[in-house]
């Protein structure tokens, strides 16, 4: 097992060429935010925006539109019941699904639409409620997809892998990852106070930083958005995922130096400045 180190940030974060444009930094669609959990998808979208994705769209319950645009007018909106959602999905480099999605019949339908329409040149990031959906029905896991990144916390991983939290050892986690994703290129980001990252080729990484001030609702939604932003602009590599995990906690630690509680939105606010320090 290897520790993720600061070097990952200089390796992954690139200075932007002068002649680049938004089309060079990836299109991300975030799907989630039921009537009760709009904040989750707004936080994820804000994280994707502040981590540098070129174009960001959110498919969510219509009730979230005003809040989304009041907070981040840079982000585009589509009602998640709009028929054009399928066409939009096909144009994306990255789809992040799950923050605040909820678990009703409509959420199931959305997952099934993603599963049927995603392709080999797209990245799928599954978080929160989306993980509960695939734990109930494995047929919702697409077979044709470039990369799947799953970001469960330990309880979500218990539901998905059937491994009780106290039995979530590295070898059990690796076995479960391979069993759940037999043919897909998949990365497991198992979140805890020391998040572990696993690949199907038996690589294991541990995040040595982060702090309990980060134990605040929305912190994982923010991580999912950062992974979306990083994979959209820096590519579908393991390194992009490791860098996202590291910078999320690094921002959290900087905020915690003089704050008892770390708000997820403050992590996002810090990203542009932190990224400029490591870009080369
Ligand atoms: N502002 C918002 O709209 C928010 C919406 N959220 C959404 O709420 C829905 C439910 O997600 P939850 O994660 O709360 O629900 P879950 O019921 O899946 O898990 C939460 C519970 O799991 C247990 N647990 C054990 N180990 C844990 C670990 N390492 N990390 C976290 N919890 C651990 C804790 O008892 C915790 O109360 C998701 O769709 C999520 O996206 C949350 O993200 C919070 C913020
Ligand atoms: N004690 C802690 N130390 C370090 N990181 C933590 C701690 N508690 C939570 N985190 C981080 O916060 C995030 C929580 O994710 P999650 O539980 O999915 O939050 P939410 O669903 O509320 O957005 C994870 O990235 C986790 O690593
Ligand atoms: Mg979560």
Give the amount of beta strand, in percent: 5-15%
Strand order of the largest sheet: 1-10-9-8-7-6-5-2-3-4
Report the sheet with the most strands, covering strand number, pairing sense and barrel closure. Answer: 10 strands, mixed
- List unreliable stretches of 5+ residues: none
What is the end-to-end distance? 27 Å
Summed up, the helix count is 11
- Percent helix range: 40-55%
Protein name: ADP-dependent (S)-NAD(P)H-hydrate dehydratase
Subunit structure: Homotetramer.
GO molecular function: ADP-dependent NAD(P)H-hydrate dehydratase activity; ATP binding; NAD(P)HX epimerase activity
EC number: 4.2.1.136
Explain how this protein is built:
This protein is an alpha/beta fold. It has a single domain (2-278), classed as Ribokinase (UDP-N-acetylmuramoyl-L-alanine:D-glutamate ligase, 3-Layer(aba) Sandwich). Helices cover 44% and strands 15% of the residues. It is built from eleven helices and ten strands. The chain has helices spanning 7-12, 38-50, 65-71, 85-90, 105-117, 128-136, 154-161, 170-180, 219-234, 238-256, 264-278, and strands at 2-3, 27-31, 55-60, 76-79, 94-97, 123-126, 147-150, 186-190, 196-199, 204-206. It has a ten-stranded mixed beta sheet, with helices on both faces. Strand 6, helix 6 (128-136) and strand 7 (147-150) form a beta-alpha-beta unit. The chain is globular, with a radius of gyration of 17 Å. The two termini are 27 Å apart. Bound molecules: ligand NAX, adenosine-5'-diphosphate and magnesium ion. Ligand NAX binds at residues 37, 39-40, 99-101, 128-129, 153-156, 192, 217-218, 220-221.
């Amino acid at each position: 097992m290897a520790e993720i180190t600061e070097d990952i940030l200089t390796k992954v974060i690139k200075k932007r060429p002068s002649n680049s444009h938004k089309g060079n930094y990836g299109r991300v669609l975030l799907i989630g935010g039921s009537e009760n959990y709009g904040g989750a998808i707004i936080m994820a979208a804000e994280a994707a925006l502040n981590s540098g994705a070129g174009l960001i769209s959110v498919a969510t319950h219509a009730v979230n539109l005003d809040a989304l645009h009041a907070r981040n007018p840079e982000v585009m909106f589509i009602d998640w019941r709009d028929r054009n959602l399928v066409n939009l999905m096909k144009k994306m480099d990255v789809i992040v699904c799950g923050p605040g999605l909820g678990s009703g019949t409509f959420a199931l339908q959305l997952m099934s639409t993603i599963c049927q329409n995603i392709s080999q040149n797209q990245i799928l990031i599954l978080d929160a409620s989306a993980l509960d959906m695939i734990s109930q029905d494995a047929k919702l896991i697409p077979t044709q997809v470039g990369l799947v990144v799953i970001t469960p916390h330990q309880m979500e991983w218990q539901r998905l892998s059937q491994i009780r939290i106290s039995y979530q050892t590295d070898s059990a986690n690796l076995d479960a990852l391979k069993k759940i994703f037999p043919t897909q290129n998949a990365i497991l980001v198992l979140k805890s106070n020391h998040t572990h990252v696993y690949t199907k080729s038996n690589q294991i990484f541990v995040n040595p930083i982060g702090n309990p001030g980060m134990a605040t609702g929305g912190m994982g939604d923010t991580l999912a958005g950062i992974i979306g932003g990083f994979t959209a602009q820096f590519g579908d590599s393991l390194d992009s995922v490791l860098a996202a995990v590291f910078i999320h906690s690094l921002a959290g630690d900087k905020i915690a130096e003089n704050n008892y509680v770390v708000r997820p939105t403050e992590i996002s606010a810090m990203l542009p400045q932190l990224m400029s320090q490591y870009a080369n």
